[in-house]
């Protein structure tokens, strides 16, 4: 029956989740992780159960229910196919701190796996370090601490007030909030005070030092906090003159009929001075000269074959279709700085309204930006759904999402310079046993990759997709993900890279992002806003003199 089939699939998924969790999961954590991985809640009602605990008690061969300090903990019972994986997880180091000499190496020449071997030869050990926070989460924490330092005991409440949700550090692989901020030691300092641990942003400390050392600038020297509104100067002058005419006539309290007559004559004279071209075209919002209209983002330069590189898997559809970020301090800072700057600029209503996109610009392939949960992201319109919605591709993260048209804005030219950070990838040398990847295989792959810095071994590019081996070096033995999928019975190791069917059907990055060489050869010249402003000023002076 359907219920029996559903139960068998669910058992595989639950076992895969619990095996990946070394310390086990509470029933609530299992519910959260299932929702995060499968994107739907546990099918309790479909199977006739009232609670998660009732469900797992009907899986005695899959789940062992334990009690720790009064809390129920669910742990996996490995079968013959998963004993090896369970052993590897059990041997995982409790502390993943590593010495400086074992940091992730980039572009290290290593012996390439031989095509006859099922497992790549062991490469030079490269430690992946502690769990890694996603760039968006780091940006949120920076934003929270940017206004003032914060006591650690007040963090949970402050985060909830700011972002409307509880900060779940365990879902990112951390055991405590101290570990979270320790992993951000380059951005956040934890100071010990009488009131407790104080979280201070390093930029905040630097600004205090600068205030002590650098003389304060006068208000006239400071740049404007809001972008200058580029409304047509002629209409500003016309509005000013119109206001002056009304105020001048209002002072004359003599003969009311004479007042009205004089006012009318002045307005008639003023209207005659306005050129006919301005009468025919009412003022309409202009597209800013620094708005990106017909340009594309460029991709990152290709990685060299056989090199080792630190990666974070950002978005997963299956082992044959996922997107990664390269782990480097420079790239991470550039993306975070971009997000902060975009939030600062577009949060001002004047700037936000200035970059509103007209209906004619909302078309497939248009590069723009979108606001989601107060943050702005670079996106490319993939398709127009209806009058209110569009589907967009996140160039820096790799996923598609349907958003409101009203959330879109033109992208400023300045934000075009950073290459698209998402890299389309497929796991090297594997193919699914059943022709397509099962849900259990994808869930296991997501667990292996979840919020963790991994080592990628570059094999080759096929049709613009990077094929690489993924390895977790945080345990005593290096864990190669293609071997795990093979040992679990989900994949065959074929010794060659079969083109990803998923990417052949749709690869938005190949559709909308230019290879780096083409973009560089396209003579990308930023609009000279100074010259345009001088031209506008000259036109303004001419218009004023005519008036």
Automatic annotation (TrEMBL):
Keyword Ubl conjugation: no
UniProt keyword terms in alphabetical order: Cytoplasm, Developmental protein, Differentiation, Repeat, Spermatogenesis
SMART domains recorded: TUDOR
Primary location: cytoplasm
Cellular localization per UniProt: Cytoplasm
Entry coiled-coil feature ranges: none
Signal peptide: none
Family: Belongs to the TDRD5 family.
Protein name as catalogued: Tudor domain-containing protein 5
Organism this protein belongs to: Ptilonorhynchus violaceus
Lineage: Eukaryota, Metazoa, Chordata, Craniata, Vertebrata
Gene transcribed to yield this protein: Tdrd5
